[in-house]
Amino acid sequence: MQHQIYPWNQQQWQQITTAFNSGRMPHAVLLQGAKGLGKLDFAKALSAFVLCSKKGENSACGECHTCKLLRADTHPDYKEAAPADEGKSILVDQIRDFCDFFIYSSQLSSYKAGIIHPADRMNRNAANSLLKTLEEPTKNSLIILVAESTTSLPATIKSRCQVLEFAVPDKAEAISWLQFASGASQNIDLALSLADYGPLEALDYLKCDYLQHRQEQFEMFAELKTGKVSPTKAAEKLSKSLNRRALGWMISWIQDMIKLKMVDNTTSITNFDIAKRLTDISKNISISGLYGYYDKVSTSLGLIDRQANLQLVLEDLFVSWIYLEK
User: Fold this and answer.
1) What is the pLDDT of residues 130-149, one digit of tens each?
2) Does a structural domain hold residue 199?
3) Could you tell me if 60 and 45 are in contact, meaning their C-beta atoms sit under 8 angstroms apart?
4) Sign of the torsion angle spanned by Cα atoms 119, 123, 126, 127
């Protein structure tokens, strides 16, 4: 488990390792920031640092017995809690098990470390279960919460953590890093835009098939409006590969349609490569209609998270899109 600290996270790394070396290490840290900034890599590198038996001033050695156990995911003093499936919640039983882990003394290292990610996916009961452990921490324990948004985290949780904010890097720095990391020379600006300027998320766009999948989904979205494909067929096709990213694309298209109706300027939109098509598709739809459909897509995302019938949710979404007019 060797995880790098990315250039745009060096300041946060220096801050937290300095705290550890000076004996001021908090018992709980909340890593907060947008997707694609390397927060989970940071959390795992921090866990390795505090557990390492031969650490340097600001990094784990990577070679000691502790580090080797971490790489093999068999270290007895390390624990993670995460959703069982993408988009699902972290449940109370998972957090109870996580908290029980911190009751007992460490076996190999002087510390015990655990990560909850994404912490903003804990349901209410899970968050409440964590609170007691945060209020009464055991000695030499480190709990790391990783979250994109903290609006769903109770104030009582946030107030018991030291918060480290992660911000998107300067665009020039992100482009330079992406060119080196991906070897790509094209679509870097588009990948960054679609990734909300998170470099690691943008790297996924460049190295995986996300750009192609997005284009295919957009063509289907456009063909629904013209009647070339039926809601049932579209729902059947999309349900086979649907994830939160795919619904996120739909939300971003609607957002951009609204922006283009309000200000005819492509510099402010996410999907600048398809700006003209978005304008053409939405020319007979009112802004209020687009706002209403945006709410419907957002609601559908919540329904899918709650394991509603995916086919029916998508069919309803697509029928509404077909008949959305002024």
Assistant:
1) 999 999 989 999 999 999 98
2) yes
3) yes
4) positive
Looking at the structure of the chain, the number of domains it has is: 3
Last residue of some domain: 207, 235, 265?
207
Other Cβ atoms less than 10 A from the Cβ of 274: the count is 20
Helices and strands of the chain, counted as H and E runs = 15, 5
68 lies in some domain: yes
Same domain, 114 and 198: no
- 183, 207, 231: which is the final residue of a domain? 207
pTM above 0.85, yes or no: yes
What's the first-to-final CA gap in the chain, in angstroms? 54
Give the separation between CA 257 and CA 277, rounded to whole angstroms: 10
Strand partners, 3: none
- Count the helix, strand and coil residues of the chain and give each as a percent rounded to the nearest 5: 55, 10, 35
Strand ranges, E, within the chain: 28-33, 78-81, 112-116, 141-147, 162-166
pLDDT digits (tens, 9 = 90+) for 239-249: 887 677 888 99
Cα gap 258→252, rounded to integer Å: 10
Q: Which of helix, strand or coil describes residue 144?
A: strand
